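Side project, low priority. Logging it here so it doesn't get lost.
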Amino acid sequence: MHKHVKRMTAAVLAASLAAPALAIGGAGASSHATTSFPRSQTLYTSGTAYSPPTNWNPLSIGAYATGTIGLLYEPLFLYDPTTNKTVPWLATSGSWTSPTSFDIKLRSNVTWSDGRPFTAADVAYTVGLAKSSPTVPYANLGQYIADVEQVGRYEVVVNFAKPAYTQWQNFLYGNNATPMLPKHIWSKLPASAVATFANPHPVGTGPMLLDEANAQEVAYKTSTHWWATKDLGLKLEFNYLVDIVNGSNNVELGQVLQGNIDLSNNFLPGISKLVGGISSSYGLQTYYAKAPYMLSANTVWLEPNISKAPMNNVNFRKALAYAVDSKQIASVVYSNIVQPANPTGLLPNLTSYIDRSVVAKSGYSYNTAKAKALLKASGYKGRTITLEVPNGWTDWMAAAQVIVGDLKAVGISARATFPVYNTRVADLTNGTYDLALDNNAGPSTTPWAYYDRVYQLPIQQKQTAQLNWERVNDPASWALVQELGTTPPTSTATLQSVYSQLERRTLQTMPVIPLWYNGAWAQYNTTYWTNWPSAAPTSNHYTPVMWAGWLGQDTTILALAALKPAK
């Protein structure tokens, strides 16, 4: 017998969601009560949600339920980090027609899940929020946008008061690509609420509809009106997708081995030993058949709170960089399923942007003698500092203990703490932490998003957008980031010069300390579903990760559409 996930009655669901008064538009969870999902028609996933799903607002960074972007809401373009190319999605094309005008042509047969057509009005409304709502994640675009023109029903022209090439590219492509919103629903909200309300009745253009949710899971059912079936020949073979909340990597490993979870995006202890010689007995598969097994997903950096001593001292931060042995973390904690990061922190798909002469001159590596000398120069007096890691993230918890040991070896007194995930996020948002491990720097078409995360100003009392959590006040570096936005993509020499300057400044001041490339954890149990992404020449090479920024903005939705029922 295989696990059947219970479905809640509508009354119990409503109580668990605690929906706010601003519950508008669309149809929410069904009102009938049933007992289970047919196993052969259901894809079970886990490894993304660490708290009960209560939010389907795609603008609520870090808060929305798995599937909100990708299964419900969709962007104009997808991004393939394995090829560094974009894929037209709700838009058929997008191009600069002048230094300050960008033209978007839309598909003409897309409908919202309530039956209303998706048109240029929806795109104009979504883009326009950058000017009207300071709480949306892309509000930094508002200062650049002059107006948004609707050219007929399926074309939009965005006019810029001044060039903002890179910021706009970040809006369109990659992990930060913005999903489109239905104007006929969202325009009824005050601008101040669009990024905060829970949206318990989501209306999207995607391949699935919200079905049920409770404290342990969120369930979706396939839509029969997904535009991509006609336009692109895509179809989900499963009727239901259930994403399970899981706070423990060890528990999830057991669920995957038992076949109760088809796709796990958690770090699973010992997976390198299970994939290979004995994998046939479990039906397990990963993207690569051997080390490193996983694609590189994001950069894990040691994030110091620069608003507090001793982290506000540059020599102390440099001492941290030289004290930590990233190779030991990769080999001992991860059994080589991750790779140590380049000192710049840029992911492998951005290698062409790395100035090797800068790294050779200003880069760092594990060196206890240098760490001790820098520590002495910092004037550090032995204060004990804490290193925060979310409880249940067993790999990071183990890495934190290695880091604490490395710091102790050079004379830094540190203690690892393991708050629950939401508490740790609140500590970073409020600036009440000392050190933390963070991995918000994911794949992007250029390094701009990486440096925007590091340097964005001004510093808010609450850094809710996951930008500049370390609170570094470096106007010169922020000016370089802003210069990137005004430089045309065709001016490659100028762009490379700015990136080289940012790389140099980052290595000289160490606002963050890149340690390793987190893996795009993806372990498949092939008992019920096959044709998973892999590096094999005959396989599809889509991204196999349900995390925010991957399911709806990269190519994971294509991976889900490629799945086939096991015979």
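Brief comment: The first helix runs from residue 10 to 17.
Revisit when time allows.
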